[in-house]
Amino acid sequence: MESEDEEDDTVLPDLPNAEDTDDVRMRLAPNPNGPWHIGHARMPAVIGTYAEEYDGEFIVRFDDTDPETKRPLLWAYDEILDEVEYLGFEPAEVYKASDRLETYYDHARDLIEKGGAYTCSCSGETFSELKNDAEPCPHRDKDPETTLSEFEAMVDGEYESGEKVLRVKTDIEHKNPALRDWVAFRIIDTPHPREAADQYRCWPMLDFQSGVDDHLTGVTHIIRGIDLQDSAKRQQFVYDYFDWEYPEVVHWGHVQVDEYDVKMSTSTIRELIEAGELDGWDDPRAPTIPSVRRRGIRGEALVDAMVQLGTSTSNVDLAMSSVYANNRELIDDGADRYFFVREPHEDFTVTGNAPDAAHPPVHPDHEERGTRDIDPGSRVRIEEADVPEDGERIWLKGFGCFRRDGTKLDYAGDDITAVREEGVDVIHWVPADSATLTQMRKKEGDVVGYAEPGFREAEPDEMVQFERVGFARVDRQEADDETVVYFAHK
RNA sequence: GCUCCGUUGGUGUAGCCCGGCCAAUCAUUCGGGCCUUUCGAGCCUGUGACCUGGGUUCAAAUCCCAGACGGAGCACCA
User: Fold this and answer.
1) How far is the CA of A319 from the CAs of A97, A211, A233, A309, A388, in angstroms?
2) Percentage helix, strand, coil, to 5, in chain A?
3) Which residues of chain A between 303 and 322 are close to nucleic strand B, CB under 7 A?
4) Burial environment of residue A346 by CB neighbours within 10 A (0 to 12, 13 to 18, 19 or more)
5) Which of A25, A137, A201, A375 has the fewest CB atoms within 10 Å, i.e. is most exposed?
């Protein structure tokens, strides 16, 4: 019944020219200026999946070449590697661009000697005007020796920020103004936060650094966003000078994620955290990887949803519901059931010949896991929305049928036909005396309520299902008899 | 202003290169039903899309032209 060819259950399009390469090798090139938001998961998800599919590999390269405007956070390097692992992938190698300045300098020197670059002291504004008119600037015809000595001066820190740049000589009359003589190196006065790199002041721009590294690290396929759609064309000039072959490139559009009120941007999230509006990167309201992880969403669920978005150049929206659908399938079988009453109505007194205890199953599909044993005591709590009209019946799940009589619930038997044929609703409940205070943190705001007594024994990190409420991850058992959980999804 | 790119149901996607088997695939969402002492799952079932206008052709989602709409770049950010 399997197709004879291959297990071709992938939804990703074939990589271009992947048959011609012995080993597909890709790269993940994050900027370590913060933990990842959900959209960032797309790159490792798709690259990792391709690597598996083609029996290739990928490397992680931190493109941390701007110590000022995209200043790296030192702890974000390991954080990001940890997130890659959470998503289920393992890089073959890890590089940091800030460790490789000497390599970039060496290539810049080569490029200068080949006549492919020149130092320029035009202001950005001046150059921009010239460039838009397809006019060369006065520095363009400088001889390589002069350029080389000025570049060495840049490296040696003899210029201030803004005073001098190194430009790649492309085609000043190229019909696309974005490709004309772009900047390869500039001076940044702010020291890099990494000790290993804090003495450098002359930094390569992304197009130079990334172009050189892709070649040197043997990258065969690049996937990147449409915001970088001109990068390959820019870098091609450098590749031509060095007589290198450019990797295959796939561009894709931006991802948006629905369901969140917070804008999905590292800098915005960081500002909200600093302003105290979010508790941290893993606040349930934050559209970040640490957040969904804390809620108990498996990396695999996120990866599958991302892979299904494909690699189209249009912008796409990721529906969190599809992540939830994936996750539900992964966790449902292992999630023990509990009752959790949110913001309860005032207690009802139990009257009549009710049983001594209720015995709902730990998991309805797994009888072998046994039952929970809940002593209802003399009073029970139910949710406000579940309170029946006076005189009407309700079925307390695992316990029995009850008829409301004012502030009392009077036992009305255990004949299930009341539910099956007479339309009595089945609801969850907790004993008022022994229920355990539980705080549920969720995207829409925190909810306080009471869980059944046995929930106090649930282990941190365990995934549970609160019946009729949804899945949640047990975060911690506080000393003051309160349990904190993070809501995952219905 | 210059230069790229895109437009298939609510969402995402397949098909488009090499026109016919496409009254258009798959997933999710949504509606209805069955089952069920929750939710979920499972089973059955339904709604729902080729941006517009021309052209080529026996035949166009697929090719051509024009337009609309959307996105991106033209940074000493990545």
Assistant:
1) 34, 34, 33, 10, 36
2) 30, 25, 45
3) 308-310, 312-319, 321-322
4) exposed
5) A375
**Nucleotide with C1' nearest the A11 CA:** B13
Å between CA of A179 and C1' of B35: 64
Strand B contacted by A62 CB (< 7 A):
no
Q: Kindly determine whether the C-beta of residue A69 is less than 7 Å away from any atom of nucleic acid strand B.
A: yes
- Contact between residue A188 and residue A67 where contact means Cβ atoms under 8 Å apart: yes
CATH 2.40.240.10 corresponds to the domain A336-489: yes
Rounded distance between C-alpha atoms, residue A144 and residue A141, angstroms: 9
| Fold type of domain A100-204 | Glutamyl-tRNA Synthetase; domain 3 (3.90.800)
A476 CB closer than 7 A to any strand B atom: no
Tens-place pLDDT, residues A442-472: 998 899 999 999 999 999 999 999 999 999 9
Residue partners of A407: CB distance under 8 A and separation at least 6? A346, A347, A348, A349
Q: Is the ipTM of this complex over 0.90?
A: no
CA of A206 to C1' of B74 (A): 16
- Residue A203, CB, strand B, below 7 Å: yes
Domain ranges across chain A:
100-204, 336-489
The dihedrals phi and psi of A358, each to the nearest 5 degrees, come to -105, 150
A343: left (phi over 0), alpha (psi -120 to 50) or beta: left
pLDDT tens track, chain A, 490 positions? 222 223 334 678 888 888 766 789 999 999 999 999 999 999 999 999 999 988 999 999 999 999 999 999 999 999 999 999 999 999 999 999 999 999 999 999 999 999 999 999 999 999 999 998 899 999 999 999 999 999 999 999 999 999 999 999 999 998 888 999 999 999 999 999 999 999 999 999 999 999 999 999 999 999 999 899 899 999 999 999 999 999 999 989 888 888 888 888 888 899 999 999 999 999 999 999 999 999 999 999 999 999 988 888 888 888 898 999 999 999 999 999 999 999 888 899 999 999 999 999 999 888 888 899 999 999 999 999 899 999 999 999 999 999 999 999 999 998 888 888 888 889 999 999 999 999 999 998 899 999 999 999 999 999 999 999 999 999 999 988 899 999 999 8
A408 phi and psi angles, rounded to 5 deg: -115, 155
Q: Say whether A336-489 and A100-204 share the same fold.
A: no
Query: Can you give the distance from the CA of residue A309 to the C1' of nucleotide B48 in angstroms?
Result: 20
B chain positions with any atom within 7 Å of a protein CB: 1-8, 10-15, 27-29, 36-41, 70-78
Question: Integer distance in angstroms from CA A55 to C1' B39?
Answer: 40
* Nucleotide B27, nearest residue via CA and C1': A308
Residue A392 CB in 7 A reach of strand B: no
Q: Which of A's residues 162-201 have CB atoms within 7 A of nucleic strand B?
A: 162-163, 165, 175-178, 180, 182-183, 186-188
